[in-house]
Structures are given as structure tokens and as C-alpha cells.
Amino acid sequence: MAEKPIREEVKETTKENLYDVVHRLIFEPSKIKASLVPLFPEASRNYSRHLLLWSRQGSPLRRLLFISVGIVALVALSGLVVFTLFFLAATINAIFVSLLISLAVAGGFLALFFAFVTAMYIGALSVAIFAISTITFWAVVAIVITAGWVGFFYTVWLVTRKSLGFAKQSLSVTGSAITTYSAAWGTRNLPHKGSI
């Protein structure tokens, strides 16, 4: 029975960069669906792979920077998403309430009602913008301050550990030098049998 050779499918790997894909998306809008959209997953994977390798190549302080920047970006985007959802819910609510009331009442009260609904809508959005942006801002500030203190204490720990290692090595070298000197001095001053 003859064995069939197994064909290995060679997947053509593209080294697309996320920056290049977005750049082509902006400056070549006619090619959006045909060629650029399938490149986004591969470009995102390449970008995240390079970013992960970059963070692993450096010192632990680089990893701390990577984590703190990531957390700040995550908190800022979470605040943006929360505001967008609140804005969407308030807009849909205002549309439904306006449609229901306009169907029920027509006339002079309708204009007054729309003015009140608009005022409430603008007031609710203003309060939401203030609350969400304040919470997001202070969360970002707290993360940056915490990351700074963690970096400071880690740097102090590294410097202390290196200093103690250097002091230990210096004491070891000094101790061996004293031992060598003492041994040499002691052999010079020993009474020799043939000297008397």
C-alpha cells in the first residue's frame, strides 16, 4: 500500500503593520472592503506580538510602564463607553417620550412639553458628562500616582539590593586581603629552625 505524501499547506504570512493598514484606510478609501478589512486581524496580532516582545525585553520597570499605560487606556476607554451608552439610552428615551406625548397631545402644550423635555435631556447629559469625566479623570490620576509610587519603591529596592551586594563583595575582598596580609606577616615573623 503506497503512502500518499502529506501536503503541508503553507500559509502566506503577511507582516502587515497596524499603522500601515490604518494609513491606507484613510488615504485609500476605495479599497476598504476589498483589501484592507481582512488585514486588520493580522495587523492587530502583529502589533500586539511586537508590543509584548518589547515589554518582555526590557527591565521590570518597562513592564510596569506597559501595565500602567494599559490600565490608564482601559479606564479612559471604559469612561468613554459608559458615557456613550448613557447618551444612547437618553437619546432613545427622549425620542420615545416625545413620540408618545406628541401622539397624545397636540397644541400649545406640545411646544411647552418639548421645551421641558429638551431642558431635562440637556441637564441629564450635562450631569452625566460631568460625573463620568470626573470619575474617569480621578481614576486615571490615581492609577498614574500608584504606578509612580510602585516604580519608585521598586527602584529603591533594586538600588538597595545592588548596594548590599556591592557592600558584601567589598567586605569579602577586604576580608580576604586582611587574611592574606596577616598570613604573610605571620610567616615572616615565625622563628625558623635554622636561624639560631
Proportion of residues in β-strands: under 5%
* Main sheet makeup: none
User: Tally of extended strands?
Assistant: 0
Compute the gyration radius: what is it?
Answer: 36 Å
Number of continuous helical runs:
5
Unreliable residue runs: 5-13
Q: List SSEs in N-to-C order.
A: HHHHH
Briefly note the structural class of the backbone.
Answer: mainly alpha
**Straight-line distance between termini:** 101 Å
| Coarse morphology | elongated
Overall pLDDT, averaged?
Answer: 75
Oligomeric state: single chain
Helix percentage range: over 70%
3D structure, described in words:
- With 196 residues, the chain is mainly alpha-helical.
- Helix content is 82%, strand content 0%.
- The protein has helices spanning 18-27, 32-36, 39-57, 60-104, 108-188.
- 2% of the residues are buried.
